[in-house]
Amino acid sequence: MSVVLIWIAACWGALALGVLLALLWRVQHLTPSEKIHQAAFTGSTDGLCELLEAHPELVNARDEDGWSPLARAVFWGHVAVAEILLAHGADGDATPARRLGSSTLG
Predict the structure, then answer these.
(1) Number of CB atoms found within 10 A of residue 84's CB
(2) Which residue of 30, 49, 67, 91 is surrounded by the most CB atoms within 10 Å?
(3) pTM for the whole thing?
(4) Residues 82-103: tens digit of each pLDDT
(5) What kind and span of H or E run contains 32?
(6) CA–CA separation, 8 vs 87, rounded Å?
(7) How far is CA 3 from CA 6, 27, 29, 34, in A?
(8) Which CATH number is 32-87's, of 3.90.230.10, 1.10.10.10, 1.10.540.10, 1.25.40.20?
């Protein structure tokens, strides 16, 4: 997707289309860390194991709000994602930077 297409759409009065194209471009160009946090937020397990095998250091990576992928998955109730993260060595005692409880798992 080209930035030029976004610019053309915005210039021709299709601002909404330009914004949509920009969002689609952004989703397709996430960093591995952003992909892991997105999976934890949405509950998507598609490609998560492969991503963790390619980037094992990201299993406990904090996002810009200080949340680990496991904390985010547990907060949103995504059990399958949490199980995958734990199987890949996620720290079950990690808490978000903004403490909500005693630990991620309870």
Answers:
(1) 22
(2) 67
(3) 0.65
(4) 999 999 999 988 666 655 554 5
(5) helix 32-42
(6) 46
(7) 5, 14, 13, 21
(8) 1.25.40.20
